[in-house]
Structure formats: structure tokens, C-alpha cells
Design a protein that fits this description.
By secondary structure, the chain is mainly alpha-helical. The chain has two domains: about 35 residues; about 210 residues, MetI-like (MetI-like fold, Orthogonal Bundle), CATH 1.10.3720.10. The protein has eleven helices and no strands.
Length: about 270
């Protein structure tokens, strides 16, 4: 009897236990990153005071936050400009990369002709291409969209191709034995199976999108957070520079987690189970 009781208590698989573990997992997922950030900012704040680091060399987090709040009416238009360029460039890259990936995955002969060219173009440093894009498209919207799209294009393309080819061949035999057409197989088998890969590429590309837009604004722009950072560096205004960096970081985090939320909604079967 004792042995039986010990065995039954080793499996806390009741709904209440499952909910408790899910809640604990959610709390840890949010608490640990937040706690790490708070500890880092606290160490930064008190290190500056402890070692008497001048504010003009390394502003404290409280000074940066205060400057960001005070300058927010001036920062907001630049914030919107950078955000719109990031999203538009990302959407442009996605609109080209996913259809091209479908074509490459469907026709191996096209892959043999196109993929080496795409891979070679990806190896060219974008810092070299950026001035060329500004010569071609000017310092307006065109060069920024082009550079952002170029940086985000490749991760989405590669991951989409991988997702379309990562399907178990037995699924094809099953769907064909059930009388499904090629279009139905593509819609109900290939696309759902590839979605986790596509979203993975999009999350990676979201980071590149922010970096691409900032690079374009660094090289030539009169708007955006990158322009503010360059302007602040010219005047050695490190508080404004760090404030703009914080704003860019917030943009990147919101964009990344927005894509992660879409992934959570559209790929429920790919969620990890405890």
C-alpha cells in the first residue's frame, strides 16, 4: 500500500497542478528578464555615483529617463518616422521573400540558378551598399526602405525555404492517398508546417530591420532616431544620445514581441508543452 501511494503521488498531472506550473512558467518568463534589467540599471546608477563618473561622460539611467521625458515632444516625430520605415521595409522584404521562397522550394532548377546569386549578394557588407543606395535613391524614404528590406530579406527567405522542405514525406503520400490535389496539399500541409519557420525568420529579420533603418539614418537623413543620435554625438550630448538609443531599443522590443504574438496566435500547434 505504501509503495502504491508513493507512485501515485509522483505524477502531479491534475488540472490544478498543470495550471500552477503554467503560471510559474509565465511568472519566471517575465520576472527573470525584468529582474536582470532592474539589477543592471541599479548597478549602473550607483556605479556612477560611487566612482564619481561625470554625467557628460556616462549619464545615469535616471538622468537619461528624465531627458527622454522632457524631450519626448521633440523625439516623438522622429520616433514615428523610424518606426514607419522599419515596418514598411520589413513588409516589403516579406512580400518579396516568401513568394520567392515558395518558387525556389517548388522548382529545384530555379534554386540552382538563383540561390548562389542571392547568397553572394548577402555576403556583400551592407555598409558598402548603403552609400550606393543613397546615391541612387537620395536621402529620402527610398534609400531607407531599400536598405531595411535588403537586410531583412535573407533570413525570411532562408527560413521559409527550410520550412517548406522540412515536411515528412509520408504526409505527401497520406494526402495523395486521400485524393488531395497539389494545391490542397500546399495549403493544408506545407503552409501550416512552414509557418513556425517563417515566423522564426521574421523574428530574426525584425532585429535586422531596426539595424538597417538606423544605418540608413546614420549615413544620410534629416529625420529619425538615427539622425538624433548622430546630431547628439556631434554636440557631445550623451544624455540625448542615450535617450534616443533607449527609444530605438523600445521599438525593437515592441516589434519583436509583436511578431512573437502573431506566431503564438497563428501557430498554436507549435507551442511547447510542459
Amino acid at each position: 500500500m505504501v509503495k502504491k501511494r508513493m507512485k501515485t503521488t509522483e505524477l502531479p498531472s491534475t488540472p490544478a497542478a498543470i495550471r500552477m506550473w503554467a503560471l510559474l512558467d509565465l511568472v519566471l518568463a517575465w520576472f527573470l528578464p525584468l529582474a536582470t534589467i532592474v539589477i543592471f540599471l541599479a548597478m549602473w546608477e550607483y556605479a556612477g555615483r560611487l566612482f564619481s563618473i561625470p554625467e557628460f561622460l556616462l549619464p545615469s539611467p535616471s538622468a537619461i529617463f528624465r531627458r527622454l521625458v522632457l524631450d519626448w515632444p521633440q523625439v516623438w516625430p522622429h520616433f514615428l518616422f523610424t518606426a514607419s520605415m522599419i515596418v514598411q521595409g520589413f513588409l516589403l522584404a516579406t512580400a518579396v521573400a516568401i513568394p520567392l521562397a515558395i518558387v525556389i522550394a517548388s522548382f529545384p532548377s530555379i534554386e540552382r540558378g538563383l540561390y548562389p546569386i542571392i547568397a553572394f549578394s548577402e555576403m556583400i557588407p551592407k555598409t558598402i551598399i548603403a552609400p550606393l543606395l543613397i546615391v541612387w535613391f537620395g536621402i529620402g524614404i527610398g534609400s531607407k526602405l531599400a536598405l531595411t528590406a535588403l537586410l531583412t530579406f535573407f533570413p525570411i527567405l532562408v527560413d521559409t525555404i527550410s520550412g517548406l522542405r522540412a515536411i515528412d514525406p509520408q504526409l505527401y503520400h497520406i494526402t495523395r492517398s486521400m485524393g488531395a490535389s497539389g494545391r490542397q496539399t500546399f495549403r493544408y500541409v506545407q503552409i501550416p508546417a512552414a509557418l513556425p519557420f517563417i515566423f522564426s525568420g521574421m523574428k530574426i529579420a525584425s532585429v535586422f530591420a531596426v539595424g538597417g533603418e538606423l544605418l540608413a539614418e546614420f549615413i544620410g537623413s534629416t529625420n529619425g532616431l538615427g539622425f538624433l543620435i548622430i546630431q547628439a554625438s556631434n554636440f557631445m550630448d550623451l544624455e540625448q544620445m542615450f535617450a534616443a538609443i533607449v527609444a530605438v531599443t523600445l521599438q525593437g522590443l515592441v516589434f519583436f514581441y509583436a511578431i512573437a504574438l502573431l506566431e503564438h496566435v497563428f501557430t498554436p500547434w507549435a507551442r511547447p508543452n510542459r
